[in-house]
Amino acid sequence: MSDIYIPGVKSRFNTEQLVEDLMRVERVPRDRAQSHVETLREEKTYWQDVGRRITSLRESSRLLYSFQNPFNDRVVRSSNDSVLTGTATREASEQERGFIVKQVAQADRFLSSPLEENYRIPEGTYSFSVGDENISFNFRGGSLRDFTEALNRRGRDKIKAGIITVQPGTRSLLIESLVSGAANRLGFSGASENLAIETGMVQKVQDIHREVNLREETIRRTRGSAVPVQDGSLDVNAGGDARIPFDLAFLAEGNLTLSFETSTRIKTGDELAGASPPPGPSIPQAGSISYGGIVIENDPSEVPLPPWTPPEAPRRVDDMAALSLVFSDGTSAKLPAMRDSPDFTVSQYRLADIAGGKTISAINVENNNTHRDIQIRNIRVFDPDSSGGFRPLNAVSTAQDAIVSMEGIEIHRPGNTIDDLIPGVTITAKTPSDIPVRIGVEPDREAVKEAIISFVGNYNRLVADINVLTRHDDQIVRELSYLSSEEQEDMRKRLGSFSGDSTLNRIRTSLQGAVTNPYTTEADRNMAMLSQIGIGTDVRRAGASSGYNPSQLRGYLEIDEKVLDAALASNLRPIQQLFGNDTDGDLLVDSGVAFVVENLTRPFVETGGIISLKTGTFDTRISQEERRIETMDRQLASKEDTLRRQYGQMEGAFNRMEQMSTSLDNFSRRASNNN
Fold this sequence. Notes:
- Among the domains are: about 50-70 and about 445-540 and about 550-580 and about 595-610; about 75-105 and about 400-440, no CATH class; about 110-205, no CATH class; about 210-265 and about 315-380, Sandwich (Jelly Rolls), CATH 2.60.120.
- The chain is of the alpha+beta class.
- Helices cover about 35% and strands about 25% of the residues.
- The longest helix is centred in the C-terminal third of the chain and has 65 residues, at about 610-675.
């Protein structure tokens, strides 16, 4: 059937195939040009990849010596992260401090008694206070949910409310302050006071708050020197005592707390100087006589004194338990030992734990020290659970300050995050604990190590790309074990693409020299090369031979982590200078591995650099080839049209000749038949 000829449908001579075969030959130069364009595009991509590798190496190099280098980063190490944590800025100095978290800061959170699900809150003006901040709003009445939504809309990040199902079928109203600290107590007034009382959230109590006004005329003393009061502070000199009476005696019950501030002053050597010898008796001057202008004086009187023996120095007495409570029955109870500090420190004690239910009438200060003066001020008695005459009945937490002791100095802060104790360091109290916590500020060696590893990794990836592009050895790809199978296959396509390229060979040689050369490090002249911190082309330990390894001859760097860790632990400053160092004192880095590598790579990737010129050249060549291909496409199209026209004309001529031959044959047959 394929040989059947149908005029107008099928060519007798298979013209289409003939034209296609002829055009295939004609398209060979065009196909070669197109293949060349694809090759140029791939090679441009290879250069772009090399540029990205160089950029990564340059950035990791610059990070190791720029002003943002990790050598100046600081990290805070805590011996117990569950109690105390911290962060540090680059301005923090290396140091170690001891802390005790005595109390964490909290905010008031009050819960009501269980209420019916359909409990309705009446209409009214509801006012709350958090410290000095007041929140007030009009509520038209509604359910617990309506009230909480109204309060939360107006809470201004100071107060919020919620509903908690404490018991099935009931709801409890939770109102909480969002600001911690003893000064930020949650208060109720107006309709909110009635609501808090009716829902069993608080109860009214007598607000006991006594502040002792220190005045010299009210203070009693029995021994020692005078006890002056200056600027509200009572000074009790060494060996002295004082009794500070309360205006009204009170019973130590409930959660009543005594608070005061104390400081001490150690006497100097001059103040503690021993007694001097007695001056002896006063002897009048001897008399004299004069006669005729002649004066005769008597011999001076003499009183022989026994030799003076200085008295023994008094025994030194150290007694920090100088404060005690005095009860109305005449007995007393010692308070815990005060802190020996020249700065005022705050002490607080729950009176019921010391007084045993007795009535307190005064505070005694008995300074039995021989060389230490004591100052006391800001004495007050208060109920920490009471605020504005109310005591919470279901307190989830009570507003209190964070109390942290640093090296024996007690610090009070309204929040648990404290950033004004150590310059550049912020500590956060997590939970109270009697166990001391050590906080150490030290260089962030992990960040330094990660930056060095990143530098070595980017260096190796660049060298690997250069080795693949400049050589035809498949072993180079097999050595890159960190590549996936797809990445290795892609690398095989690139093998030898730029074989003999002087640019790539030059940058590889320069980089290899940069990472193997010695550099000046004033901090430690024995730390002048990367190999001395465990980085090199062969960092195997001495005697640990593993035979010939061709990959170690290709310029890749290895890292011995144990050696690097040990170097970072003890030689951080020399390592910093090894990567970037100011050798002439102009405050600009001018030496070091990272500095040299960054300067070597900059001309390749900067604007208008070598990589940009390379890719620009490829763009020009690709454009030229594409214009040449467009010209050849036009010529091929014209050639194909010509062939089709010529073959069409040939088939037409053949058809006419065939028709003429048929006509002649028919004429001959008719003529033969007529004869």
